[in-house]
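in:
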C-alpha cells in the first residue's frame, strides 16, 4: 500500500481546479482519494459558509469522477474544511491518497507515511461530549492502528471531524451536546487510544475541564448535524510505501518555536533560520492546533486576544501561529485550526508536518 499527499492552493472556497487538473492528467486517481482537508478564507465561526461551499464543490467533482451520487461521496472520502485564513495563511487543501493491493508482507528497513480512515458508530445528542464518545473514538482509532500495523508511538496526527448531532425535535439539547464538548471528548478518545491518558480513570467530569489531560497528536473540529465521527490517522509504518514521512511536535504556547525546530531537525531539515527554498518545497502539509491562552498571559506578559471586542480570539490565534510557522518554514500553506480542548497544553497545541524524503 502506498500513501500520497498532494497540496493545492485555492483562489476561492469552491476552487477545485487544481485537483480537477491532477485528475484529468492522471497524477491522481479519484478512487485513491481518502481525504481532502483544507483551509478556507471565512471567519471560522458558525456563519462561515465557505466550508459548505468547499464541501459542495469537492463533492460534486468527486461524484462526477467516480460516477456515483453526490450523497455517496462522503461514505468513502473525508471532506474536512476549516475556516479562517487570517494573516499570511494561504487558502489551500491537502489531498490524501492510498493505492495498491495490500501491505508489505515483510517490514521495510525504514518507516514511511501510512494513513487510514475510520468512523465511529452514530451518536445521539445525549452521548455527545460524554465518556461514551471518548470510548467509541478510542475504539475507532485502535482499529486504524491495526489496519496500518503501527504502534501508538508511530502516530503523529489524528484528524477528526467530530460528530455533533442535533437533538430530536421538541427536546432540549443536553448540556454536553456542544461543539466544545464534542471536540474535547474526541481528543480524549485519541489520548486514550494512544496511551496518553489513563482511559480507565476518565469520567464525564474530566471532559472539557481537566485541561492537564491532552493528546499530543489530536486535531479535532466538530461538525453540526454530523452523527458519525470521521477519523483520519496518519502514522509512519514499516509496512507501507510513500515518498513521505510525518513528524509532530507540541507548542507549549503560541510563540513556542523550539519544539518546531526539533521537528525540522528530525525531518532532516535545517533548524537554523528560515528554511531555504529547496527545503521548503519538501514540505507537503503542516497542521496545527492553537488557542489564545485563557489566563490572558503569554510568558508573563498580558495579551488582549480575549478582551478585544473588534476581533475574535480565534482569528488572533490562527494569525499568530500561522505567522510563526511560516517564518520558520518559508511556506504560508499552513492548516491552523482553533479551539483546542485537550489538544496539547492549554494555550499551546500540536503541530504535525508531512515531509517528502525523496
Amino acid at each position: 500500500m502506498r500513501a500520497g499527499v498532494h497540496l493545492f492552493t485555492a483562489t476561492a472556497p469552491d476552487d477545485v481546479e487544481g485537483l480537477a487538473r491532477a485528475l484529468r492528467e492522471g497524477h491522481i486517481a479519484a478512487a485513491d482519494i481518502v481525504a481532502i482537508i483544507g483551509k478556507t478564507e471565512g471567519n471560522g465561526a458558525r456563519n462561515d459558509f465557505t466550508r459548505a461551499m468547499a464541501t459542495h464543490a469537492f463533492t460534486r467533482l468527486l461524484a462526477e469522477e467516480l460516477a456515483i451520487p453526490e450523497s455517496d461521496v462522503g461514505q468513502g472520502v473525508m471532506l474536512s474544511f476549516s475556516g479562517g485564513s487570517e494573516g499570511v495563511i494561504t487558502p489551500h487543501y491537502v489531498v490524501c491518497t492510498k493505492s495498491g493491493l495490500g501491505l508489505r508482507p515483510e517490514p521495510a528497513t525504514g518507516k514511511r507515511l501510512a494513513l487510514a480512515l475510520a468512523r465511529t458508530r452514530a451518536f445521539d445528542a445525549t452521548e455527545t461530549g460524554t465518556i461514551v464518545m471518548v470510548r467509541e473514538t478510542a475504539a475507532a482509532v485502535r482499529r486504524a492502528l491495526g489496519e496500518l500495523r503501527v504502534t501508538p508511538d508511530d502516530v503523529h496526527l489524528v484528524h477528526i471531524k467530530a460528530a455533533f448531532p442535533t437533538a430530536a425535535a421538541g427536546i432540549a439539547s443536553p448540556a454536553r451536546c456542544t461543539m466544545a464538548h464534542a471536540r474535547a471528548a474526541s481528543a480524549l478518545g485519541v489520548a486514550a487510544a494512544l496511551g496518553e491518558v489513563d482511559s480507565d480513570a476518565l469520567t464525564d467530569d474530566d471532559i472539557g475541564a481537566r485541561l492537564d489531560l491532552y493528546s499530543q497528536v489530536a486535531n479535532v473540529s466538530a461538525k453540526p448535524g454530523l452523527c458519525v465521527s470521521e477519523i483520519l490517522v496518519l502514522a509512519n509504518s514499516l509496512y507501507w510505501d510513500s515518498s513521505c514521512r510525518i513528524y509532530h511536535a507540541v507548542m507549549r504556547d503560541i510563540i513556542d518555536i523550539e519544539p518546531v525546530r526539533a521537528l525540522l531537525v528530525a525531518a532532516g531539515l535545517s533548524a537554523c533560520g528560515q528554511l531555504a527554498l529547496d527545503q521548503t518545497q519538501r514540505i507537503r502539509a503542516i497542521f496545527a492546533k492553537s488557542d489564545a491562552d485563557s489566563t490572558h498571559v503569554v510568558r508573563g506578559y498580558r495579551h488582549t486576544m480575549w478582551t478585544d471586542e473588534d476581533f475574535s480570539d480565534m482569528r488572533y490565534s490562527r494569525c499568530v501561529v500561522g505567522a510563526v510557522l511560516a517564518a520558520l518554514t518559508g511556506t504560508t500553506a499552513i492548516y491552523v485550526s482553533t479551539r483546542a480542548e485537550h489538544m496539547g497544553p492549554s494555550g499551546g497545541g500540536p503541530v504535525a508536518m508531512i515531509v517528502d524524503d525523496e
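note: The chain has a mean pLDDT of 96.
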